[in-house]
Amino acid sequence: MSRRCELSGKAVLSGQLVSHSNRKTKRKFLPNLCQVTLQSDALGRSVSLRVSANALRTVEHRGGLDAFLVKARTEDLSPTARGLKRDLEKKLAAH
Predict the structure, then answer these.
(1) Domain ranges in the chain?
(2) Could you give the 3-state DSSP secondary structure of residue 25?
(3) What is the residue-averaged pLDDT of the chain?
(4) Cα 53 versus chain centre, distance
(5) Which of 20, 29, 52, 88 is 20 to 30 A from residue 62's alpha carbon, by CA?
(6) Is CATH 2.30.170.40 correct for 13-94?
(7) Is this model's pTM higher than 0.70 or not?
(8) How many Å from the N-terminal Cα to the C-terminal Cα in the chain?
């Protein structure tokens, strides 16, 4: 399982730890990932995703998973989230 947010695409970044004497050693910046279950109102089902805390705040701000997926770029989404977005677009096009 990769350390990547399924909705925003946030992943591990690499950088350097710099000491007081200006020595540099490699380090990793890990995303703050949470295993959450989100409810899709339009599809009528719940989905379990591994999402960063920042993306979870954005989902709440936009008004739920459906509103987030409509605005999200397809390239940033995981294959699971892409499938959800495709199903959501089909459902909204039918109405």
Answers:
(1) 13-94
(2) strand
(3) 95
(4) 9
(5) 29
(6) yes
(7) yes
(8) 36
